[in-house]
Amino acid sequence: MTDSVxxxxxxxxxxxxxxxxxxxxxxxxxxxxxxxxxxxxRGVVAAASYEARKFGVKSALxxxxxxxxxxxxxxxxxxxxxxxxxxxxxxxxxARYTDLIQPLSLDEAxxxxxxNKAGIETAWKTAKAIRAAILEETGLTASAGISYNKFLAKxxxxxxxxxxxxxxxxxxxxxxxxxxxxxxxxxxxxVTADKMKGLGIETGADLRAKSLEFLQQHFRSSAEWYxxxxxxxxxxxVNPNRVRKSSGSETTFDRDLTDATEIEAGILKMADDVWAWxxxxxxxxxxxxxxxxxxxxQQITRSRSQPSVIVSQENLRRSAVDLVRTxxxxxxxxxxxxxTVSNFAEAAAPEHEAVETELPIFAECQAA
Length: 368
Hints:
Elements: E1 9-14, H1 17-25, E2 34-37, E3 45-48, H2 50-53, H3 63-69, E4 74-76, H4 80-95, E5 100-105, E6 108-112, H5 123-138, E7 142-147, H6 150-157, E8 165-168, H7 173-178, H8 190-198, H9 204-208, H10 212-219, H11 223-229, E9 246-257, H12 260-281, E10 285-294, E11 299-305, H13 313-324, E12 334-344
Keywords: Cytoplasm, DNA damage, DNA repair, DNA replication, DNA-binding, DNA-directed DNA polymerase, Magnesium, Metal-binding, Mutator protein, Nucleotidyltransferase, Transferase
Family: Belongs to the DNA polymerase type-Y family.
Domain UmuC: 9-189
């Protein structure tokens, strides 16, 4: 793609995906506040229906807090195999309109429709056709953002949710960004947003007013990204072969653990979950990281890189246990443990490269 060609990029985002699938498959849940997740004391919300969101229920919210905000909330156990199958159907729809598809998760993706594979007059009409096909074939609604780059397309898809679409044209991109709060920008998390607020940066206009030197002083390696997006600039292409950089699994215990045997058993279970993913994708890494969260929510990690990739389950298990033993016996109760493998071999065969179409491995995990 040359710089002289204006890209036509669509960001498609399913509406309350997990919860919508549950409401589709169980009519008694329709119109009711639904949370996908485990309603146990230490569970968390994986997804919430729009009816639940009106009460402030959202993903990653502790189940106890969610119930407090919405006493009528209905918890439904997650069915990830079902969600993956629906996601496969959705991606089949995408493939009719473009060969350039970059999945971000099971329920959202970037599509580059510049080449106009389907022969539709505009990107706007293409987005409408995609959303209509998804609705007809899955019974689910999707929202879409259309623009000339990925950053703006993603922002735009959230602008008319649910079941809508919004376009940001080249002549309006920079000015539109200036009107938005920086907390909505992809790449600006809550901590960064608070830091920006302390520096007098609350909107895109505020961000644009800052010099690159100022941003480098306060945000280091992220400065150029912030400087560019404040001007509606994003040159990243839609990359259909984006390789997943890590695979991890974590679990929250029913109670804070101090017994080394129980803690190691949790680590081994997470290592086995991660190995199952690595083995199925033939994607192997050199670095193992163990995550530990204590009962008071203090969090630490321990990592170790090996000279060569880990190609056996036993090696991964041993590495993970060795790392967790560096903090055993614990000085206080542990509520969560996790295992991640990263630093994947670059020489993996293309058919085994893992694009980011999978959720993190949940198994019985309840991420805190």
